[in-house]
């Protein structure tokens, strides 16, 4: 028997690496009620069934039962199974729990199927269910079970399937009298907290009920579907509450079709596909921000983001995307406020710090509390303190949309990000100078191999980066010169433009990669071994010092980061990347 630490008993079926689908049963039942559904899913999905607290073999409720308690039970089960997100199929009370989880932890849900579940009841229907709760409290589950079977199965089916009726009756009557009515009360009272969710639920959703399901009829399912944009609605003809047992195919076919479309269908991207796409996204030059918030106990949290976008002026809205794999994703998904700090060109180290997974990011940064107690980074170019407007589930990211409540700007230069590297807009002016300057323009390159830099030794023992020869002073000339020395060189991007104030000469420096054994007057230097004091040109000295620094910042995350996402590693390796 599988059991979590909190006493939740569960079963798992289906291929180990398949997308996870969790089935949540209804009041008074247990995980065995999915026996008619399971065979339709378990060839393609990793199907998890479990007993709600106080039902079947699971432990009694650890506190007074509520939708939040059941929601925590489900996310705890996902944690136990190391499952970041799953499709949740909830029947009746299970459909209410699924909607509660979709509000509490939207990032844990890839799709929702809500079967025969209630929406707001009429006063009369609400009165009737409260009466049944009282009856269950007084007389236990046996008192209400026969009336329940009439609501759950059509008359003819009940008469012809007495064995199944006995089975379902045995499930219900097994509920302990002192617990059953408390769980029943959740079914009766929980509605208010899940109707009209704010922000609205946004994951793919399927809603099904029977047109004779009197307590959870078509108008209720319509109301549920109307609250979830893009949801699908199926009304089954001539069926009551437990269609999943009476006519399994009628539930299984639309359910399987839905899951195949929204959970299993998206083509699986290989790592190579993802890298190529990330590189393509990286051609869009952006600024860099650090998004901050506080978790409920007040601890500041933050991550570097270049996915920031202004959205609307009236109302004032902005968005930023956070990866579901980010440590702080859960905190941001439910935070009532967050702040976007736009970084200036001097804040490369801050970007590296907040792109890391270090636990003490805020101990290493200068910041203060701003509007709504949000952490605001000192020295930023701009800040937008936002109240949460909505959270949209989008593939492997969540889109956080915020309504700007307070903002401020300063007058400094921005930090830019393009193809996995930082850049400064400030480059433009020297470029214009160089283009218009008469006299000599030297062309050279910072050539890298395996995090080492190629330097040339001059006759006097000083060093410099490889330069194009005077008689072939061009990028092609630079590459050809290296080739003549037995090196294969490839230039990738403009790295620096300098005016050497000592010589009044201008220099244009590219970045590139190189391979091959260097000739006797050249050598590769590890970044920490670059002999800065023996670099002849002052401009080159400052450029190489900056290069070394950037590598440090870029590689900040490599030791602490999650390499599987490839993101932080890519920054370090100076490869183009999305982020
Ligand atoms: C320039 C840059 C931009 C980034 N943009 C984003 C982004 O928009 N969304 C995101 O989720 N991660 C982005 N990242 C990666 C996160 O900052 C990184 O995964 C960080 O570890 C998240 O922090 P956390 O795991 O503590 O939540 C970016 C990283 C860099 C260097």
Write the layout of secondary structure elements.
Elements: E1 2-3, E2 9-13, E3 20-24, H1 38-41, E4 46-50, H2 67-80, E5 86-91, H3 93-104, E6 109-115, H4 123-139, H5 142-152, H6 155-160, H7 162-173, H8 177-189, E7 205-210, H9 218-226, E8 232-236, H10 243-246, H11 248-264, H12 271-281, E9 286-287, E10 289-294, E11 300-305, E12 309-312, E13 317-323, H13 329-334, E14 337-342, H14 348-354, E15 367-369, E16 375-377, E17 382-394, E18 397-409, E19 415-418, E20 421-424, H15 428-436, E21 441-449, E22 452-457, E23 463-464, H16 475-484, E24 488-499, E25 506-515, E26 522-526, H17 538-554, H18 556-560, H19 567-572
Parallel strand pairs: 3-4, 3-5, 5-6, 6-7, 7-8, 21-25
Antiparallel strand pairs: 1-2, 2-4, 9-19, 10-11, 10-14, 12-13, 13-18, 14-17, 15-16, 17-18, 19-20, 21-22, 22-23, 22-26, 24-25
Helix pairs in contact: 2-3, 4-8, 5-7
The chain binds flavin mononucleotide (FMN).
Report on this model:
The protein has 19 helices and 26 strands. The strands form 5 sheets. An 8-stranded mixed sheet has the order 1-2-4-3-5-6-7-8, sandwiched between helices. A 7-stranded antiparallel sheet has the order 11-10-14-17-18-13-12. Strands 21, 22, 23, 24, 25 and 26 form a 6-stranded mixed sheet that branches. It has 3 domains: 2-119 and 190-264, Rossmann fold; 284-416, Electron Transport, Fmn-binding Protein, Chain A (Pnp Oxidase, Chain A, Roll); 421-556, Alpha-Beta Complex (Nucleoside Triphosphate Pyrophosphohydrolase), CATH 3.90.79. Mean pLDDT is 89; it is low at 555-579. The radius of gyration is 31 Å and the shape is elongated. The two termini are 44 Å apart. A hairpin with a 2-residue loop joins strand 19 and strand 20 (421-424). By secondary structure, the protein is an alpha+beta fold. The structure holds flavin mononucleotide.
């Amino acid at each position: 028997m599988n059991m979590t630490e909190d006493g939740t008993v569960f079963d798992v079926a289906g291929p180990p690496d398949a997308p996870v689908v969790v089935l949540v049963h209804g009041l008074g039942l247990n995980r065995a009620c999915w026996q008619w559904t399971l065979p339709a899913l378990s060839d393609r999905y990793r199907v998890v069934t479990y007993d709600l607290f106080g039902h079947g073999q699971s432990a009694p409720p650890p506190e007074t039962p509520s939708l939040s308690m059941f929601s925590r039970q489900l996310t705890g089960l996902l944690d136990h199974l190391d499952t970041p997100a799953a499709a949740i199929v909830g029947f009746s009370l299970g459909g209410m729990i699924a909607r509660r989880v979709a509000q509490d932890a939207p990032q844990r849900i890839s799709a929702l199927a809500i079967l025969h579940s209630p929406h707001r009841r009429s006063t009369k229907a609400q009165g009737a269910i409260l009466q049944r709760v009282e009856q269950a409290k007084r007389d236990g589950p046996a008192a209400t079970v026969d009336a329940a079977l009439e609501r759950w199965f059509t008359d003819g089916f009940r008469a012809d399937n007495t064995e199944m009726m006995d089975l379902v009756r045995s499930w219900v009557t097994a509920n302990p009298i002192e617990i059953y009515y408390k769980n029943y009360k959740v079914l009766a009272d929980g509605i208010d907290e899940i109707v009209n969710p704010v922000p609205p639920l946004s994951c793919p959703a399927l809603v099904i009920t029977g047109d004779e399901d009197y307590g959870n009829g078509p108008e209720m399912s319509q109301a549920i579907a109307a609250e979830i944009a893009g949801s699908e609605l199926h009304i089954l003809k001539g069926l009551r509450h437990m269609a999943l047992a009476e006519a399994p195919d009628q539930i299984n076919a639309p359910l399987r079709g839905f899951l195949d479309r929204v959970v299993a269908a998206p083509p699986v991207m290989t790592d190579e596909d993802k890298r190529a796409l990330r590189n393509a996204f990286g051609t869009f030059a952006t600024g860099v921000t650090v998004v901050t918030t506080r978790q409920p106990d007040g601890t500041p949290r933050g991550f570097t983001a270049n996915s920031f976008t202004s959205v609307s002026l009236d109302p004032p809205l902005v968005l930023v995307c956070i990866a579901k794999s980010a440590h702080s994703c859960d905190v941001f998904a439910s935070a009532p406020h967050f702040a976007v700090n736009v970084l200036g060109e001097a804040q490369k180290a801050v970007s590296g710090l907040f792109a890391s997974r270090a636990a003490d990011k805020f101990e290493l940064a200068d910041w203060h509390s701003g509007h709504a107690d949000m952490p605001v980074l000192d020295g930023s170019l701009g800040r937008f303190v936002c109240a949460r407007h909505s959270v949209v589930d989008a593939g492997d990211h969540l889109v956080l949309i915020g309504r700007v409540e307070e903002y401020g700007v300063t007058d400094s230069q921005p930090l830019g990000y393009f193809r996995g590297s930082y850049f400064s807009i400030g480059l433009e002016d020297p470029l214009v100078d160089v283009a218009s300057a008469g006299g000599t323009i030297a062309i050279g390159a910072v050539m890298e191999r395996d995090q080492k830099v190629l330097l040339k030794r001059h006759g006097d023992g000083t060093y410099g980066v490889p330069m194009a020869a005077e008689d072939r002073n061009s990028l092609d000339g630079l590459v050809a010169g290296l080739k003549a020395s037995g090196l294969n060189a490839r230039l990738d991007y403009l790295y620096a433009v300098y005016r050497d104030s000592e010589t009044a000469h201008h220099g244009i420096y590219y970045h590139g990669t190189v391979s091959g054994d260097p000739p006797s007057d050249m050598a590769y230097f590890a970044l920490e071994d670059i002999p800065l004091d023996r670099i002849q040109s002052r401009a080159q000295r400052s450029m190489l010092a900056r290069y070394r620094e950037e590598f440090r910042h870029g590689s900040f995350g490599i030791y602490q980061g999650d390499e599987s996402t490839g993101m932080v590693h890519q920054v370090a390796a100076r490869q183009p990347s999305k982020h």
